[in-house]
Amino acid sequence: MQFALAQVRFEAKVSKKKLGVNERLRVDFEMNKDGDNFTPPSFSGFTVVGGPNQSISNSWINGKRSYAKTFSYFLEPTRRGKFTIRQAVIEIDGQTYKTLPVDVEVTGAVDKPKDGDDTDLLASENLHLVAEISKSDPYLNEAITVVYKLYVSTRISVSNWRELDSPKYSDFWSQAIDMKQLKIENGEYEGEPYRYVVLRKTVLYPQKTGKLNIEPLTLSVSVDVPTKRRDIFGGRLYSTVNKTVAAGNRVINVKPLPLEGKPEDFSGAVGEFEFRVTTNKKELDATESLDAKVLVSGNGNLKLFDLPKLNVPNGLEKYEPQHNERVRTNLTGMGGNISDTYTLVPQYKGKYPIPSISFSYFNLKTETYKRITSEEIVINVKNGPEGSSIVSTPEKTEGTNKKAVTQVGNQFRFLKLNANLQPTQKQLFFKSTGYWLSLTAPLLAIPLFLFFGKKRQDRLSDVSGNRVRKADKLARKYLSEAKKNLGSQKEFYIAMERALHNYLKAKLHIQTSDMSKERIERLLKEQDVENTVSIEFIALLESCEFARYTPSSSSAMQQDYNKASRIIATIDKQL
Q1: CA–CA dist 197, 184 (Å, integer)
Q2: Which ranges does the record mark as transmembrane (predicted)?
Q3: Which of 41, 44, 60, 472 is geometrically suited to a Cys-Cys bond with 86, CB 3.0 to 4.6 A?
Q4: pLDDT, tens only, 499-541
């Protein structure tokens, strides 16, 4: 938008190239040398509501003069459409100069019209917070990445920012990636050159299927916006504007894992894994110990599933395993290994086969289920007492382990056949310690009976308090039932919802028939409960309703249970 000859510059600038029919447009015609006979264009499609305003600036920097003269107009569009700000003309040193035409699009009315000279508008149009999601339709328990970028135009500068609100990821397992240093990079936003900085990287594993909402990150940013005013040296003055920017809500559609080919022992592992069972020794003596390790390694949701249990034959004493996790999290998700290490102690001499076990997972590349089976391991116990001639493996019957009874040597070798029994001396009860205690105890108990009787009477007369205590007891009861049903989705969420309702009956004194979400939110607000806590409580009720009919993992149920306990405790404190 510039016509130049020698060192003369004459150009047209607009505050925006796209505006609503109810907004204003500012047009500046700027030159670097004084001229005569300035002629503006006709501004077809617009009405001039301000101007021309004339401003002149002179400055000397390092002995060099800098001059700028500007004619400014404020325009209102008369209708929708695409319009052209045609050429303005001026004479400088006997030569005629013209600006280049500028195209402007006028759209329908906007909700919040802005003045063309509004510094707040300039900051808004040149500052953007964006949440970039790696995948919008992942499988249940498949890793996705959310990267938050702050884009800043070259027209403005940012001096500071702080977080106003952070997303909670209530339906996800989340892990923030450590940002050691913020780095400014060059890029593009909607086709225009911008600078940007990556503020946060987060890895998410969805724990529910269906449409899940990713809450926005909200920042307060101090923006330095250039104005048309200049200081005594001709330098441009800046105005600082505090802007609140948000990344916006993002919705992803989480797909359930396929039912076709799903193994019965599938525990929720999603990714690409290796599986093996090893021991640190295969030959030893009786009563010595060995370690057996069940190990899963690879990339996937390593912290969100259970390892298969190790079965051992009779004659090997098995202790509770020691769980170990060596997991790192980066932008591709979790990687590393998890293991259960069992300590085994053989009791008798012989050979003990540790049977093979299987591990199943869902492979994201092939979108099919895979099964890995370990090899059988034989433990040779060389020295020790003789056991039965046959070593059997555990046999499961109705959920219990049955082990063979081994008879070795004399079964009653610890019984004493010759006992030194001595006659006891007869003692009189009269005037003994027990005698005096039985006389004085009733007298000492009278004040206690009177005290506790009064407390009981006060408690019985407190009708409102009794109702509260009864409802609290029911809430604890149903939360306990929910915990017992963590493996059964429908029963778990029914018990959870019932517990939340009974808690409200206790604290807000309302009946179940009155429990609309709007009424609950209003009553909690009247009790000075924080708005964020009320929203979480309502969201948890909605989650209970929705989750009864949507597949959900055991990790999601445990997360909802912990969330219910936390919210109830928080509301108790605030009430």
Answers
A1: 5
A2: 434-452
A3: 41
A4: 887 777 777 776 655 567 777 877 888 778 888 878 888 888 8
Rg, Å, the chain Cα set: 39
CB atoms within 10 A of CB 352: 21
**In terms of DSSP bridges, do strands 358-363 and 270-279 run parallel, antiparallel, or are they unpaired?**
parallel
Q: At what angle do helices 554-574 and 489-508 cross, to 10 degrees?
A: 0
Distance CA 347, CA 379 (A): 12
CA distance 555 to 543: 14
Structure tokens at 27: 């047009």
Domains 2-116 and 463-574 in one fold: no
Residue-level length of the chain = 575
Alpha-carbon gap, residue 25 to 18, rounded angstroms: 9
* E-only strand ranges, 86-230: 89-92, 95-98, 102-107, 127-133, 144-153, 157-165, 172-177, 184-189, 192-206, 210-214, 218-230
What is the side-by-side order of every strand in the sheet holding 89-92? 36-39, 89-92, 95-98
CATH hierarchy code of domain 270-393: 2.60.40
pLDDT digits (tens, 9 = 90+) for 106-129: 988 777 666 555 666 677 778 899
Beta strand pairing status for 25-31 and 8-14?
antiparallel
Both structure tokens of 202: 């987060």
Region label for 431, one of left (φ > 0), alpha (ψ between -120 and 50) or beta (otherwise):
left
- Both tokens assigned to 222: 């101090």
Q: pLDDT of 214-248, one tens digit each?
A: 988 888 888 887 766 666 566 667 778 888 888 87
The second-level CATH assignment, the architecture, of 463-574 is Up-down Bundle (1.20)
8 A C-beta contact, residue 149 and residue 188: no
**What six digits make up the tokens of 220?**
């307060």
Q: Where are the domains of the chain?
A: 2-116, 122-254, 270-393, 463-574
For residue 354, with 0-12 CB atoms within 10 Å meaning exposed, 13-18 middle and 19 or more buried, which class applies? buried
Rounded Cα gap, residues 32 and 13, in angstroms: 14
Q: Helix-strand-coil percent breakdown of the chain, rounded to 5?
A: 25, 40, 35
Per-residue DSSP letter, 308: P
Return the half-sphere exposure (C-beta side, CA atoms, 13 A cut-off) of residue 44.
9
Distance (Å, rounded) from C-alpha 489 to C-alpha 88?
72
**How does pLDDT run across 297-348, given as a tens digit for each residue?**
999 999 999 999 999 998 899 999 999 999 999 988 999 999 999 999 998 9
Q: Residue 297: which residues within 8 A CB-CB, separation 6 or more? A: 273, 274, 336, 337
